[in-house]
Structures
1.
Amino acid sequence: MRISADSKTTISVAIITLNEEDRLPDCLDSVAFADDVVVVDSGSIDKTVEIAKSFGARVFNKPWHGFGPQKQFAIEQCQSDWILIIDADERLMPETVTEIINAVNSVSCQAYSLPRKNYFLGRWIKYAGWWPDRTIRLFKRDSACMQSQLVHESLQVNGIIEKLANPIIHYPFRDLSHMMSKMDKYSSAGALELHKRGESSSFLKAILRAGWAFFYNYLMRGGLMDGGPGLVIAISDAANKFFKYAKLRELAGRDGE
């Protein structure tokens, strides 16, 4: 059953996509309560755009310029009083929808953060910083903007931020191959960010960063409590750190050619 927001308060949903035909339908179905859905696609070659249009979303095509710029562009296309940012690999539970609607209709702040319930290899990941994994996703129009970063984008809010209790459900990886593919992409983007800031690296630094990442996430932050999936995550994060700094060294070497 469709849940409608109060007529005096409207909600837009902003989503960025690239080849998400398998995950987008569940995401769009979970935000069917919204008055306005904006999908910004960066060149999908599958049925992502067709699916988005079939759900009534307003679709915009924009070449990829990084997570921050893509999401800021999506925000700028939204037309409602409030904006909710969600990714194609995320879904809202009915309880979360109800809480969002109640929140925007009894507004006492400019933005809300929501916890994220991350699932990997069929398991809810509770340790190593994966829970509650709070993130600001719901905000009043013109009260926030996205930082222009290639990775680890974040909202800058002008005003008070409060917390919602019910989570966003997040499935960050389709499978292990997808996890490795994302690790490669994120390590490249991270290396480029560091390079632009003038930072340097070495293979020794890459090894030390990777070793610390594994120790910190798996032991100090309790990743081992998540069983096999926790071990895979710790190894993946360590590999991400290693390749980010190894790629940073590679970029510096190219500059010296």
Note: The radius of gyration is 19 Å.
2.
Amino acid sequence: MNRTQGSEDGASRADWTGTLFLSLTRAVYVGPARDTDPHQHHAIQICVALDEPFLLRPGPQQPWRPCRTAVIGADVDHQLDGRAARHVLIYLDPETPDGRRIVPPQSTSIAPLSEALSAALRESAAGAQDGQDADLYAAVSRCLALTPLEQRRLDPRVALALTIARQDPQRFTSVAAVAATVGLSPRRFRDLFARDTGIGCRRLMLWLRLHAAVRSLAHRSTLTESAYAAGFSDSAHLSRTFRAMFGIAPSALSRGVRFVDVED
């Protein structure tokens, strides 16, 4: 695959375009998907081709396989070439009840999605028109039977921490700081947070920082400005973290993608 370097973070000129729905615990991208570097991330990834199949392989020395759907387990090495065709890409935290239901714990495989579920996702995405982004995200959530955090029983202090995280992600860069804000010790807060949400605090903090950086880039800030705003030491730190998580440079995603913030 040919890549042309030419940006502050070494991004390919073949930017991604489409719509990315971001929440505290998941992301859903709908649109043309291009190629990624070999990478792994803790999120479960679900891929559904809406037009032509995508290419997928578990590592750089492995053969490419054409796929119409795939479920990639947490921390599984993989490389994707979307061939610029239209896809739905869904990222879920594996520690959430939804993640554990879709992919059992300790799963280290890449497997096809059930045909019934993939057909429902394709139908939902294909039926969405411009201006119906919220309807599309809601349809994807319904197809996967995703459970909003607000419908789970949360300790009031955990609920307050989530409110803080939504309103001011930078305050969530320190577990100790957030724990003190809600009147708990760091250890007690971590235990309650994991019990009620199924998400580790540190993973959520990293997700929030990446979320904040992408939002900053979407508002035309430079990579360096976005890195500092999200609590990364510099632009190189942000780019390394982003590439490790998603296999692409942050600017390749941010320049042509429309971002939509959604509640869980």
Note: Residues 156-197 form one domain.
3.
Amino acid sequence: MIIFVNMKHFTLLMLAFMMVSACNDAAPGPQVIAHRGFWKAEGAAQNSIAAIRAAGLFGAYGSEFDVNLTGDGQLVVNHDFTYHGLTIADTTYAALRDPSLRLSNGEIIPSLDEYLDASAEFPEMKLIFELKSKGEPAYEAIALPACVEAIERHGVRDRVEFISFSLSACKEFARLMPQNRVEYLGGDIAPKELHGMGINGIDYHFSVFDKNPGWVEEAHSLGMIVNAWTVNEEADILRMLELGVDHITTNEPELTATLIERFASERKK
């Protein structure tokens, strides 16, 4: 059994939870998304079960995670297309789950089913679901239906927000689940064009908004959600708040929540 927070850290997480909850009550945002879970919590690792639980304890609006398809058609949670030198798309699920292959916190690579099961402890937290895809039709023809089937089977449809660098995957998620939020990650397409494709959000690196600050207002005028990733430094976080993004994906949830609270307080003066 993995213990991922000691009492001191648990207390800090509870204080942060109250802070983030106050921020998240002020809809529509800005709100905090824990990038690959709250992996900096004690005992956690990126895209680990411990990380999504830590994000839930923290009270994040959402926890982002990455989904890959194995060579035998199973879904696992891992950021890279490789794991311990193995190409996930060419490797069986059993081989990836070999006990000798571990995350940095000692966990075995989680299946999507295990990840969604763990998320059930925090039903208010959104699941920011990134499909890792290079836009290959054969891969996506298997991966997308499998993702949708898992989401439906776990009863979390109303909690899932899809993101992907693959434009074709975003279009297909929008077609398959039109009531869900779908956000393109690529940063190379204006909001109006994406909106015309049925995609209802943009999730771009903060540097894209530095170069195209008008895209935030353009997206909002179309009823689209705007997320900025991965924003970790105070100056960058504050700049995104000034631009009016709705969500901030970050490796620093505590810092981001503090700055959001301070920003909101100063705006009220």
Note: The domain at 7-268 is CATH 3.20.20.190 (TIM Barrel).
4.
Amino acid sequence: MLIIGVESHVLTAAEREYLKHPAVAGVILFARNFASRAQIQELCQEIRANAKLYPLITVDQEGGRVQRFREGYFNLPSLERIGESAAKDLPTALELAKQHAFVMCSEILASGLDLSFAPVADLGLGNLAIGNRAFAANPEAVSAFVAAYVEGMHAAGMAATLKHFPGHGSVREDTHFHQAIDARAFNDIEAMDLQPFNAGFAAGADAVMMAHVVYPEIAPEPAGYSWHWINNVLKSHCGFKGVVFSDDIGMAAAESAGGVAARIQQHLTAGCDAVLACPPACVPDAINSMPIMDYPRERLLTLRARTTPAWDTLALNPYFAASVRALDSDRMA
């Protein structure tokens, strides 16, 4: 199934038709779709009104440099800043991770969305795409933070999505623009990069997003296109039973599979439950590649919003208010 990107602040006539296609499971929103908090709420209502079946509405609201909605939303610090605070007091830092998750999720749910693709479980080892999106470089530290973050997301009523499996942090290249190859053996990846994912799974993470990275010692294709990575490693070796998302098929590292239709087919054949077609230019080809048929939605619907708080009640929640105070940049300095 497909999670599609849309062009602007309101749906086009074509996008309203796309939402009626049985293969379209939802929408992912970006900064290009944001004008104000009220407008995002209206856009979510418009998406739901035009979809034939319940659509997941998603976003990447991580904090730091990846925060799609800003004006009217809490200015979330990067995960790296949360990780750095562990040097002063680890228990307090882990609580900050839970509070970060709770504030982020509460605001996104109050906006009418279902899901923010979070947390980043990659190691902070200098990857150009990840950067300060990662908690830390040390796998044990990242594992503890990921588990705490999942707990905070669940407390707010949102499913948690670990990304980017099996680990994007140990290569330099940004897969938005270049192919990335990680030549390590599986034992090295398991000892380092898989640790935070396993900690997140143990904490009850509901979904994963695959990496577009190639690990040639394990499989010849990028992980998201790899039956081996998804079935033998993620599901069998790690025991994960949740939802599997591709990363965006519009990224340069996805082009090795061929055109849009080929990318989608390879992801689905490998075992992804849903494919992200984020650039609006990709969407017509993505839609046309999917036959008209009944698609199984039950797994994806486990990720729908578990609560929809009203904006004007958020500040009345004692934990939300305490979390905002704790995450304030002046207090964290």
Note: The two ends are 44 Å apart (CA to CA).
